Every structure is written in C-alpha cells, then in structure tokens.
Amino acid sequence: MKYENIREAVFLRRLNRFVAEVEIDGRQERVHVKNTGRCRELLIPGSQIWLTKPGTPGRKTEYDLVAVRKDNGLLFNIDSQAPNKVVAEWLAEQNYEVVKPEFTYGDSRIDFYMEREDIRCLMEVKGCTLEIDGVGYFPDAPTERGVKHIRELIRAREEGYEAALAFVIQMDGITEVRPNVATHPAFGEAMEDARKAGVQILFLPCHVEPDELRIVGGEHALYQCQDHSE
After folding, report:
1. Residues in the chain with pLDDT values less than 50
2. Spatial separation of the C-alpha atoms in residues 155 and 133, rounded to whole Å
3. Which of 36, 58, 77 is the last residue of a domain?
4. What confidence tens digit (pLDDT) does each residue in 79-114 have?
5. What is the pLDDT of residue 220?
6. 109 Cβ partners below 8 Å, 6+ apart?
7. CB neighbour list of residue 90: distance below 8 Å, 6 or more residues apart
8. Domain identity same for 209 and 114
9. Is 230 part of any domain?
10. 34 and 75 in contact (C-beta within 8 Å)?
11. Do residues 64 and 168 share a domain?
12. What pLDDT is stored for residue 229 in this prediction?
C-alpha cells in the first residue's frame, strides 16, 4: 500500500491518544496520530516522522502521522489501518475463491473470511509496532477486544472453520512476534490457547518506506487453509 502527499517532520509531543504536535516546514502543527497504542518508545520528542495529507474535507487536522524512525534506526509504520490494507492486497494473490473483509462471526467482526473449495477460513489481523531487542511484541497496551477476537477464533475452530491470527510486522528485519505478557497477561494466555486449539499463528514480515508498507517473505508463513481431518 502507498501513501500520497508524504511529508517529513519532527515529533514534538503527544497531546492525547489521537493528536500530536509536530514541527513541519519550521512551524508547529497539530496532526492526527493513526495509532491509539502507547508507542512510547517511538514517539519521542525530536524523532524523525512522516505525515500524509489525506485532504478530507472538514478535518480538524490537516495531516496524519503514519511513520517514525526509532532511535535504533528502524523505520516503523504506525498506521493502525495499514495492516488490514496490506493483508487484503496479499490475500488477493493467494488464490482464494472468496475473500470477505469485516466478517460477522458470533459477537465480533473478524477481519477476513476466505473460502477455497470446501474450506472456510477466518483470519484476525494485528499490527505489531513494538520491537525489543530484535523481537516484535503485541500488544503495546491492554486489549480486551483482542482477547475476545482470539476466543472467537478458538470457537470457530471448534465449529469446523480454519482460523488464523496474523501479525503484520510494521518494521523491517523482524520475523517473530511474541505476546507482551508484561503488559497484558490475558492476551498471552489466549494466544497459547489458540495455538493449542489449532489456530494458525502467522507472522507477516514487511518492508517499510515513509510512503509504503508491503508484506515481504510471506511465502515463509503463507496461510494455506488445510483440512486438519486428513
């Protein structure tokens, strides 16, 4: 996926979950932060960031903050909407007969429903923007919604669906995501229960540019719906 109208800026401070103050072209401006997670190790005063200008009428802010370079040199895409977009692009190349986003299952909306022949598949997508010593972690803030979705995937497996929990790694060079049990132990427990129930845990490494996010190396973790009864 590509962004239009990308602009480089300097991060100054985060005012709340949705708004930050930045310096662009020598002036201070408030921008929309496209990630409600903490991002404490990324959004540090003085950090190099990139903004996009969507041009949507009636907005309170002119720019969206979509990328930041960490102090270790890694470039991160922090757009929380980007993972679903790149997975949709990726799934379009995986020879599924049906791909439906935002599929209602139980009391939740699961990110994707796919069909191939007589196999039905559900996939929940999570974007990973937390890196510690070369390993990705999720979540960076407690997510009861994330736990609920994993429980739905477990139930789907019990009802005969294939199911996958897919982590889009929004930085280069990281190939593994571990549950951040220090921040949310229940997510780690749910993830382990899912693994035991036969839910596929899928890592999707990405290449990041200020104006681009794309899945690379997906062939190493390609989710192929398989009939476990065979």
Report:
1. 219-230
2. 34
3. 77
4. 999 999 999 999 998 888 999 999 999 888 999 999
5. 42
6. 102, 103
7. 204, 215, 218
8. yes
9. no
10. no
11. no
12. 39
**Amino acid identity at 158:** E
Give the range of the structural domain holding residue 21, as residue numbers without chain letter: 6-77
Q: Residue 24 maps to which CATH number?
A: 2.40.50.580
pLDDT value of residue 218: 59
Q: How many residues appear in the chain? A: 230
3-state secondary structure the chain: CECCCEEEEEEEEECCCCEEEEEECCEEEEEEECCCCCCCCCCCCCCEEEEECCCCCCCCCCCEEEEEECCCCCEEECCCCHHHHHHHHHHCCCCCCEEEEEEEECCEEEEEEEEECCEEEEEEEEEECEEECCEEEECCCCCHHHHHHHHHHHHHHHCCCEEEEEEEECECCCCCEEECCCCCHHHHHHHHHHHHHCCEEEEEEEEEECCEEEECCHHHCCCCCCCCCC
Q: Which amino acid is at 96?
A: Y
Amino acid identity, position 215: I
Taking alpha carbons only, the member of 81, 92, 143 closest to residue 114 is: 92
Retrieve residue 183's tokens: 């921040």
What is the edge-to-edge ordering of all strands in the sheet holding 177-179?
130-132, 135-138, 177-179
One domain, residues 64 and 165: no
CA nearest to 121, candidates 146, 96, 141, 87: 96
Model-level pTM?
0.92
Is residue 177 assigned to a domain?
Answer: yes
